[in-house]
Amino acid sequence: MLELLWLIPILPLAGAAVNGLLGRRFPKALVTAVGVGAPLLSLLVALGCLWEFAKGSFPGDAYNLVLYAWTAGDLSIPVAFLLDHLSAVMLFIVTFVGFLIHVYSAGYMAHEERYSRYFAYLNLFMSAMLLLVLGNNYLVMFVGWEGVGLCSYLLIGFYYDQRFPPYAGKKAFIVNRIGDFAFLVGMFALFANFGTLNYADLFSRISEQPGLVTGPTVMGLPLASFVALCFFVGAMGKSAQIPLYVWLPDAMAGPTPVSALIHAATMVTAGVYMVVRSNVIYQLAPGVSQFVAVIGAATAIFAATIAIAQTDIKKVLAYSTVSQLGYMFLAAGLGAYSAALFHVLTHAFFKALLFLASGSVIHAMGGEQDMTKMGGLKKKLPSTFWTYLIGTIAIAGIPPLAGFFSKDEILHAAAGNGQWVLWAVGLITAGLTAFYMFRSVFLSFFGSFRGTHEQEHHLHESPPSMTIPLWILAAGSVVAGWIGLPKVIAETNQFHRWLEPVLFHPAGREAIEHEMGTGMEWALILIAVAVAVAGILLARSMYGGDSGLANGRTWAERFPVLHRVLVNKYYVDEIYDALIVKPLAGLSRFFWKGVDTFIIDGTIHAGAYATELTGEFGRLSTTGNVRTYALYFFLGVILLGCWIAFG
Amino acid sequence: MSSVPISWYLMLAALLFAIGTVGALTRRNGISIFLSIELMLNAANLTLVAFSRQMGDRTGQLIVFFVMAVAAAEAAVGLALFIAVFRARRTIDINRLNLMRG
Predict the structure, then answer these.
(1) Complex prediction ipTM
(2) B23 occurs within a structural domain
(3) What is the pTM of this model?
């Protein structure tokens, strides 16, 4: 079974090719069969491979499948797949959640004219994402990394006939390029020093001789720190961390299932996956790791505060995604890689669920995304309501749902490392998360309907192809956390133990983690739950009931400046616009108008004009009149005569 | 027999040549220009004959026959051209035949 690993990314690629090239002529049912069938087959193969992998029917910790080696001179990059304990987790998330979202899309996009194109893009994304997680070296990862970026761009700009989506797509692509550039530089630095980008080769050599990366310096930094920093900047772009997070909220311009799959569950976690994959390097770069943790925590609380003031349901979820990604980097920076990946797993379930449920709401509301125009949807959309509620409870961190365990693991890592400031930031963010998520629940589903009469008439529960994935993801959001029960409850953290083979422990690093007493751990858990409950109760007291919206306005009027800053997302887009985009555009305009049009074009035009002018004068001599020519001839004879006579 | 000095022939030839040149440059009628050119050719012929006699060398007189033959041929071709032009344009006014203007 394991030798079929290569089929997992190839199947969706084939689906993309078939739908992309022929889909326009296919009947809709066939497009659906190909578009959903390919990820289903991929999922089945993946499950088979995971089963074999879990049984461990191969030597060593990881299964390598070399397809062929891409060679150019001395350079040889194997195109190879790797199934180890880390990529297994990601493989499961991508194929499972991805398949469900494909099923959901069949319902959500049913009335879409460019149906086959949508599925072609979505399948292509799956293929690229699987390449990213399955590659056994950084270059294959990078190919997938760029592939998912491309698909993200294509799908954000899917409604290209509207004004905003193409702009948002471009923004996502350009912001990601900044990160990709750093990622490339990091790869170059590794390759220049080791001559290989293979995980296995790199990590075994580094862990045997840490001096290889802590010794040499690049631009004044030890190699490990340099590479770690470059990779993290790459992750900042892909996983939407400060300061490169700005593209993700705008990415909501794409279809909602796309937001669920790409901009919540899978692609944006690629950065976390990369950092966890490179944990050997990060462990040897403690300064950069601390930086990662701080950026993660800052992003978490920053995005959470913005989410409080948003009224667009997808924007709330988008900022919540940025915030949760911040959590993951907080964990990764603290060295709690298993906690980071655990949060990736649980987050994939509940955030995909939340997005899909919000998509179901938007579907029912006829495209309306503004929560101030919703309300009272609980009775009309029961499945959507219950699943959204489950997702919200999960993300809020209420036990025993999934979000609680992974978030608790992260907070525990912060406290265990003695990083109490980061712990406090994480805790406040948890409270804010509970607050804004329940705010969205109360605004959308409770109270009375605030939309137009027409919309109210149109309200309907979504078809089964949409609600069934919702329920499956809801089930996942409940149980996914149980695979990583904390030590105080279970004997060992199963998830942690699962990931153990891919994690690296440099000498002296474990000592940092203080062993906390059981009482202390329980106290921390209780505090976290209490904060979450407090957030929920606050949301309920403010937004519960019919006067929720009015209450919110009263609070906004009480703090007008704060409210305006939050609604406008701290004016970050405006600041970037003024500091980077405008000067860059000005510089480009200078090179366009000043250098290109004036200097370069000007030189050529001047030459052409001079030639033309010469011609204009020259043509005066050819009058076409024979007598003129005779006169020239005569003058010539006289000149010749003079020359002979006097010369 | 008192001979006419060669300078007289030459002056006459120069005069004829000048008249021919002025005529060729100023006349508008194509046939007049033709006549003027003939005048110039014959001015040259006169010079040739004069020198031929002065130097006792017959080659100059020989050349004159060639020139006359060529002039006759030229006249035939030129007149044919003018007839063709006249048929096409209803004029042989040289000022109006300027299709080749640049």
Answers:
(1) 0.82
(2) yes
(3) 0.82
Task: Confirm whether B101 is domain-assigned.
Answer: no
Q: Inspect the interface and report whether the beta carbons of B24 and A630 lie closer than 8 Å.
A: yes
Residues of A in contact with B97 (CB under 8 A): 624-626
User: What CATH number should be reported for the domain holding residue B60?
Assistant: 1.10.287.3510
Inter-chain contact A626–B97, Cβ cutoff 8 Å? yes
Q: Into how many domains does chain B fold?
A: 1
Give the C-alpha separation, A203 to A227, whole Å: 13
Tokens, residue B78: 């030129």
Q: Give the model's pLDDT for residue A509.
A: 53
Phi, psi torsion values for A26, nearest 5 degrees: -80, 150
A559: left (phi over 0), alpha (psi -120 to 50) or beta: beta
**A643 min Cα distance to partner chain B (Å):** 19
Q: Is residue B1 part of a domain?
A: no
pLDDT digits (tens, 9 = 90+) for A39-56: 999 999 999 999 989 887
Cα angle: A54, vertex A60, A66; to 5 degrees: 90
Q: Residues A316-345: pLDDT tens digits?
A: 999 999 999 999 999 999 988 999 999 999
Q: Which of B26, B85, B95, B96 has the most A C-beta neighbours within 10 Å, making it the best mutation to test the interface with A? A: B95
DSSP state of B5: P
| Shortest distance, CA B97 to any CA of chain A (angstroms) | 7
Residue with more model confidence, A600 or A560? A600
Angle (CA) A614-A619-A620 rounded to 5° is 105
Looking at the DSSP assignment, which residues form a beta bridge with residue A81?
A65, A135
Q: Is B21 at the interface with chain A, CB within 8 A? A: yes
Over residues A504-555, the pLDDT tens digits come to 876 555 544 556 778 888 888 999 999 999 999 999 888 887 777 777 788 8
Residues of B in contact with A621 (CB under 8 A): 102
Asked whether residue B99 is assigned to any structural domain, the reply reads no
CA dihedral B53, B57, B61, B62 (to 10 degrees): 170
Q: Closest approach of chain A CAs to the CA of B30, in angstroms? A: 10
